[in-house]
Amino acid sequence: MKHFFHLLFIGLTFVSFGQKKSFDLKESVLKQRALSPVRLNNFQWIPESDSYTFCSADWQSLQQSSVASEKSIELTSVKEINEKLGTSFAHLGFAKWINKDLLEVSDGGSVFALYNTTTKSGSVHEVPEGAENVHFHSGSAQLAYTIQNNLFIDGRAVTKNKDKNIVSGQTYARSEFGITEGIFWSNSGALLAFYQKDESAVHDYPLLDISQTPGAVQFIKYPMAGQASEKPRVGIYNIKTKKTVFINPRSGADSYLTNVAFTPSEKYILVAEVNRDQNHTWLYLYDLKGKLIRTLWEEQNDKWVEPEHPAFFLSNTSDNFLWISEKNGFNNLYLVGVNGEAIQTITANKFVLKEILAVNAQGDKIYFSATGPNPCNTLVYEVDLKGNQRLLTNAEGTHRFALAPKGAYYYDGYSSLETANSEFIWTLNGKMAKMLMVSADKLANYNIGTTEIGNIKGVDGSALYYRMIKPADFDPNKKYPVLVYVYGGPHAQMVTNSWLAGANLWMHWLANQGYIVFTLDNRGSGERGFAFESQIHRQLGSVEMEDQLTGVDYLKSLPYVDGQRLAVHGWSFGGFMTTSLMLRQAGIFNVGVAGGPVTDWKYYEIMYGERYMDRPEQNQEGYAANSLLNYTKNLKGKLLLIHGTVDDVVVMQHNEALLKSFVENEVQVDYFVYPMHPHNVMGKDRAHLMEKVLSYIIDYN
């Protein structure tokens, strides 16, 4: 039934238990980063060399060293750059190498500089006031950005749409399908592609701004499931001719256009298209006039197809590329030729590939991160174009990777339950070339308990991984109440083989109040492959609850768990899960705290909601079965609902509709809002939030 593959005892030092420090709740929330293991800041290889740089501990200087050297020297500093260029950068956290002499330095979005570390000279490029979505092309020193709904390059308007519903250069589809930006430079900077969306038919959703007197309504575009959506297209702007051509969807005006990429030759542009039903995708090759050349990839699935990674080009001399698809059940690599030649399978792993990390200078060896057989890990693999694959990172854990430009070495930084943080340079034949850092455990002198990762068998036979945190003074002969902390939604993985197993310090604070804190990744959660993740299709909530109850049964089987004192808490999808468990499985948990919960999927946005639930008219039974508005009369125990008043992800309508149902059924429930906070409560107010959450749980469990 149970299998432990790691057990960590944190803080077993020569300091006696009574002499150790204890953090209070506020400290556990606000000092999470400060108490995290030390890492090398902003490690980067210098192009064309085996030397590297990293930022000093205070981020004020750039230190240089090499594989062969035991020392580091100061290469440059914020003070030097500011004096030479007349800038006022506060740190070097955004510095990155362009070539062996040239650094790009920025403040994160309003000022960009190119600084030559050899000549001690450079140029400064300032973004106009009010500009957003800034993309600096260092090779041509051009700035692209948006102001309101239009796109500009160095002050020149690329679009001039007076209709505010026509928006250029921004993300769309609410950042689904791997969409994280709306501006795409070609390699040379001669071309700029951008998203343009027509939001005319999308509902204007009101949010109340109480910072003004009187309060004012701010409207956002929020397309709910089954309603009118954005109409996208991709623009291609030629810097020299100052002309734009557009590519429109081919499978419907409200289909999705994703993963835009120019080929290295700049003769073509790749655009992936997904139909609105999200069960069919095509990867199209267009010329620069917007003419379709050919379809390079096509994929269908009766549940969903979700391309999330743009084409990865193996070199600057070929337009052939790697494509990531989970058509065989797991993300794998495929080599695709732009001329329409047969697609070559590069990997056929039965575990999840996460990201392509690098390719060697010859373009014949690819480096990628993946879980490996244990889904809690993030490991690094090498594979050649014939499919010969090997694992580079032998230590289990969560790895960070950077390939040296000459391809003889790689940087490997990782953590695990046993390792706070270790950083090394290795040769590609597996020999350690240099130890960079082995971090001390900043929590060693604190009273902090044990963290375990294990797995239990789910009802479908799959392994369900969990994290369990016990108090520092845990006594197996006692009975402990439990907080189940849950997320449970797609793309997320709560339990990882990393320092503290992905837990927050407030969980350890609660454990030391005499609790066990338990988290389980149910079916539907990330990094497990399509079969595991897609069982939620058309029934969001049902399968996930089944697995969480398997976790509850396991907890109740433990001799040190008080099965009559169970609490549950989660946010967003975790808020939906918390409320689902309190209402649809009433009586199992004494108390629940649900933050920003989805309460009815018909109120959630199209792109996410329709992927997993289809449209409301297509899945009336599924929407009704998983609408929490239908279960409010079932509540037993105490339930606290929390929401940010300007939440633009899970809008307040979810909680308010649920409250209305509680009132109609004459059921009492508790409710608390965080004025002017969006989907989560951050900053110093987060300490207030966690005090609210945990005091409620302690009081009523």
Count of DSSP-assigned helices: 10
For the sheet with most strands, the description reads: 9 strands, mixed
Query: How large is the radius of gyration?
Result: 26 Å
- CATH architectural type of the largest domain: 3-Layer(aba) Sandwich
Q: Strand order within the widest sheet?
A: 1-37-38-40-39-41-42-43-44
* Rough outline: globular
Mean pLDDT: 96
Helix content: 10-25%
Strand percent estimate: 35-45%
Q: Give the uncertain stretches in residue-range form.
A: 1-17
Total number of β-strand segments?
Answer: 44
Structure description:
With 701 residues, this protein is mainly β. It folds into four domains: 2-35 and 442-700, 3-Layer(aba) Sandwich (Rossmann fold), CATH 3.40.50.1820; 39-126, no CATH class; 155-310, Methanol Dehydrogenase, Chain A (8 Propeller), CATH 2.140.10; 314-439, TolB, C-terminal domain (Neuraminidase). Helices cover 14% and strands 36% of the residues. The chain has a nine-stranded mixed sheet with strand order 1-37-38-40-39-41-42-43-44, sandwiched between helices. A hairpin with a 4-residue loop joins strand 10 and strand 11 (142-147). It starts with a strand and ends with a helix. Mean pLDDT is 96; it is low at 1-17.
